[in-house]
Amino acid sequence: MVSQLGFSFEETKTQQRRVWKISELTGQLRLEVERSFSDLWIEGEICDFRPAASGHLYFNLKDESAQLSVVMFRRQAGLLRFRPEDGLHVLLRGKLSVYEQRGSVQIVAEHLEVMGAGSLQLAFEQVKRQLQHEGLFDAERKKPLPAFPRCVGIVTSPSGAVIRDFLNVAGRRHSALQVLLYPALVQGDAAAAEVAAGIAFFNRSQEVDVIVVARGGGSLEDLTPFNSEFLARAIAASDLPVVSAIGHETDFTIADFVADLRAPTPSAAAELITGAQHKIEEQVEQLSLRIHRAARYALIQARERFARLSAPAAFARLQDGLNRRQQRVDELSYRAETLVGRQLQRASQRVQQLSSELIRHDVSHRLKLADERLESLAGRLLHAQVATDARHRARLKSLERNLVALSPLGVLSRGYALVYDENGALLRDAAQAHPGQILKTRLARGSVESRVTQTSQESNGEQNKE
């Protein structure tokens, strides 16, 4: 019997015996096996997974009844988008070989992919599980955003809608905000390293208060750089707060979980960063509007009050009130004088009576006491009269000052005038007059009659003539 290796396992008497060395035999076996099984697709379950310090991966691939050793060298292992682990059901492409030192058959893997769930999703779950276990997602380690940032550093592509949208929103809400761009790839194998370099750059420069990592939406494969463990650890190591603005509303990446704040879109990131500044600007605008309205209302109220006080009827009421108060002062003054006079008369009569008694009784001491009491009483009465008269006169002067201040004559003395029509009605608007009409103008001293030749309306600084 002759095998595919090109030699016979049976010795015949006519053939010369050949003796093989072990290394020769295993070497020949390897060549024959690799030539016969050079491009294989093999399905199985990973077990006994052993990553080596060299970067090579070693594991067994098994099914229900058998297993084979597998080696994946460092170059091919570096292209994997997930971390192999025991229990994974995978599809392997490679070749069958012989490990000569042990004489064992093994598979040299060129490509490995997960059966069922995609490798990208698996890699996402693996990295997420690992970093969550390390506490990198914990809320306690997240840094707060500055309330009023002066400068923002954004790491993204220099072209495209992302940077334009961010600048438009940030500029509209906070015109004084400075934005520094670190241009970086946001897709492809080199993207994670470039974004991480941008984060490190802004931390070294110390020119910005917060960092934004941004890109547009995309598929799971497009967002692969932002699911890398390398970039996630760069975000976690940042001394400055990092805002992730990756993808759209429904896209979540590992960078979102590690970042200090996640924004659903780049535009939303700009709104979140400028939120406190924008709120203060809105409050200032509202307060300014309220002050303007209050001042306008106060002016309208003052004009209405002036108009009421300037009316002839109002002036007449004030004059009448002042006259009544003057009459009351005169009455009180008369009563005070009468009361003092009566008291003095009674006191004089009492003095005369006491004098007569003193004369009759010849009591000089009593006379002296009576004189002293009389003088005291007269002084008190006089003081009461003066005080009462002073109070009433002060009240009268106060009323006079109020009347003068409120009187249209006081206003007219400052250069203003009151204009009445032929019926005596006060005019407040040029629209109440018409050409040819006779008007009476009341001045501080005297009045003037005039005929209307032309009227004009002023509105917002413009004149409308009739």
UniProtKB/TrEMBL annotation:
Keywords: Cytoplasm, Exonuclease, Hydrolase, Nuclease. GO terms for biological process: DNA catabolic process. This is Exodeoxyribonuclease 7 large subunit. It catalyses: Exonucleolytic cleavage in either 5'- to 3'- or 3'- to 5'-direction to yield nucleoside 5'-phosphates. It holds the Pfam family Exonuc_VII_L. The keyword Transcription regulation does not apply. GO terms for molecular function: exodeoxyribonuclease VII activity; nucleic acid binding. Residues 136-450 form the Exonuclease VII large subunit C-terminal domain. HAMAP family: Exonuc_7_L (MF_00378). It comes from the Bacteria. It is found in: Cytoplasm. NCBIfam families: xseA. Residues 21-112 form the OB-fold nucleic acid binding domain. Its EC number is 3.1.11.6. GO terms for cellular component: cytoplasm; exodeoxyribonuclease VII complex. Bidirectionally degrades single-stranded DNA into large acid-insoluble oligonucleotides, which are then degraded further into small acid-soluble oligonucleotides. Its main location: cytoplasm. Heterooligomer composed of large and small subunits. The keyword Hydrolase applies. Belongs to the XseA family.
